[in-house]
From TrEMBL:
PANTHER family: RIBULOSE-5-PHOSPHATE-3-EPIMERASE (PTHR11749). It is an enzyme of class 5 (isomerase). It comes from Truepera radiovictrix (strain DSM 17093 / CIP 108686 / LMG 22925 / RQ-24). Binds 1 divalent metal cation per subunit. Keywords: Carbohydrate metabolism, Cobalt, Isomerase, Manganese, Metal-binding, Zinc. It catalyses: D-ribulose 5-phosphate = D-xylulose 5-phosphate. Its EC number is 5.1.3.1. The keyword Metal-binding applies. GO terms for molecular function: D-ribulose-phosphate 3-epimerase activity; metal ion binding. InterPro entries: Aldolase_TIM (IPR013785), Ribul_P_3_epim (IPR026019), Ribul_P_3_epim-like (IPR000056), RibuloseP-bd_barrel (IPR011060). A divalent metal cation binds at residues 44, 46, 77, 186. This is Ribulose-phosphate 3-epimerase. GO terms for biological process: pentose catabolic process; pentose-phosphate shunt. NCBIfam families: PRK05581.1-4, rpe.
Length: 234
């Protein structure tokens, strides 16, 4: 290779983040250990308040319990209104990444600053109908961008096809303005959508039903997702 040739593109590392929303809560410790042993890269914790989204789910006590069981990074997805009220509690509980929705607060800039002040990595999540232009205003403050591929609030929904276009656009914005920032996709990820989301630019694939559901078991399901992405590489 001479000096004028561009180096070959480096494959982005794929990270799988099982979403606890689909886990068996009566066996949470076992589910976490199975995910870790099965090759998960992060544990995704969905927090819902019955206000920003219609459903209720987990709080800081569960994050604290997870912290005692796994050493994997805890990726906390806050689907709550005015998330700045609870950032301290989730940081204290052991979150490694806290992601807030751009639609959930008029004080997004402040919320992201608060997360960083707590010594935690900051993420911004965008609902399917939210313009990506909001990223221009906050990208310097974030370590992760989460493109929702379903409307938040429930597991087991169908992947919204338009998310692929949004992932490609978000990838281009990140590469141009904030290299190193992770691009995460969440909702409806399975063996069919995972390769397409990865190749559209996602680094982190969140998957609930496809990991904790079905008969195959957590380790088998994680391997199947990873292999589906690798097969599509070739
Ligand atoms: O944030 C979420 C829903 O709001 C969940 O992380 C997501 O839905 C994962 O579940 P599944 O993989 O079953 O779609
Ligand atoms: Fe989520």
């Amino acid at each position: 290779m001479n000096d004028t040739q561009a180096p070959p593109p480096v494959a982005r590392a794929l990270k799988l983040a099982p979403s606890l929303l689909a886990a068996d809560f009566a066996r949470l410790g076992d589910e976490l250990r199975a995910a870790e042993a099965g090759g998960a890269d992060l544990i995704h914790v969905d927090v819902m308040d019955g206000h920003f989204v219609p459903n209720l789910s987990l709080g800081p006590l569960i994050v604290e319990a997870c912290r005692r069981v796994t050493s994997l990074p805890l990726d906390v997805h806050l689907m709550i209104s005015s998330p700045e009220r609870y950032i301290g509690a989730f940081a204290e509980a052991g979150a490694d990444i806290i992601t807030v929705h751009a639609e959930a607060t008029p004080h997004l800039h402040r919320a992201l600053g608060l997360i960083r002040e707590c010594g935690v990595q900051a993420g911004v999540a965008l609902n399917p109908a939210t313009p990506l232009t909001v990223l221009n205003e906050v990208l310097a403050l974030v370590d992760l961008v989460l493109v929702m591929s379903v409307n938040p609030g429930f597991g087991g929904q169908t992947f919204i096809e338009g998310s692929l276009r949004r992932l490609r656009a978000a990838r281009a914005i990140i590469d141009a303005q904030r290299p190193g920032c992770l691009l995460e996709v969440d909702g409806g990820i399975n063996h069919e959508t995972a390769p397409r989301a990865y190749h559209a630019g996602a680094d982190v694939l969140v998957a609930g039903s496809a990991v904790f559901g079905g008969e195959g078991g957590v380790a088998h399901n994680l391997t199947a997702l990873r292999e589906a992405v690798q097969r599509a590489d070739g």
